[in-house]
Amino acid sequence: MSLFGLGSRNQKTFRPKKSAPSGSKGAQLQKHIDATLGSGNLREAVKLPPGEDINEWLAVNTVDFFNQVNILFGTLTEFCTPSNCPTMTAGPKYEYRWADGVTIKKPIEVSAPKYVEYLMDWIESQLDDETIFPQRLGAPFPPNFRDVVKTIFKRLFRVYAHIYHSHFQKIVSLKEEAHLNTCFKHFVLFTWEFRLIEKAELAPLEDLVDSIIQ
Which Pfam families match (predicted)? Predict the structure, then answer.
């Protein structure tokens, strides 16, 4: 199955791509991302373009990485099932429980696909909230914007950690490991550039992360 072919995806975990914030500089910055990624130099591609606002840059990239993880996980929905993955783990030592602090305040144990579904719903609600991700040109970002972005990236990392620990052989059999590795490298370099994820959170993929950022 092609990575971008719809296949038999579960629509609850695979969503249509979200667009960069319209009306902001999002579309312009998205073009910059596409152009710099095309050069193949991911270390340069993640850097804040000269003269740009860091929050605008974080916002458009957050949408971009949300879409990437969405597409990657979408290829695995027939393999990552409640029976195959009854808990959201990243190897034998790490298990993630879900809480959003609003509808689910106390962390609950859920299957991996349910965790990803909750996560994607939650991220989408953040991206659609104009008080957090403003759509209008010149509208201010909230004071806690960086904290929200950090939480989004911390949780997106958990999806990568689960894929690498539980489904890497399936990714290899689908001949998608090069794409997975490139997406993850881009993700790690971006989060490292802007210090978005604490080092302890990266422990499930520590060796892989270290090989990327060295």
Answer: Mob1_phocein
Instruction: Say whether pLDDT at 61 is over 90.
Output: yes
Query: Which distant-in-sequence residues (6+ apart) come within 8 Å of 150 by Cβ?
Result: 196, 197
Q: How many residues does the chain have?
A: 214
Distance CA 164, CA 137 (A): 39
Average pLDDT over residues 2-17: 39
Phi, psi of 96 (to 5 degrees): -110, 135
Q: Is CATH 3.40.50.10800 what the domain over 24-213 is classified as, yes or no?
A: no
190 touches 79 (CB < 8 A): no
- 106-154: pLDDT as tens digits: 999 999 999 999 999 999 999 999 999 998 877 899 999 999 999 999 9
Of 154, 174, 146, nearest to 74 (Cα)?
A: 174
Dihedral (C-alpha) 84, 9, 160, 3: value to the nearest 10 degrees?
130
Element (H, E) at 141: none
Domain ranges for the chain: 24-213
| DSSP labels, 146-179 | HHHHHHHHHHHHHHHHHHHHHHHHHHHHTT-HHH
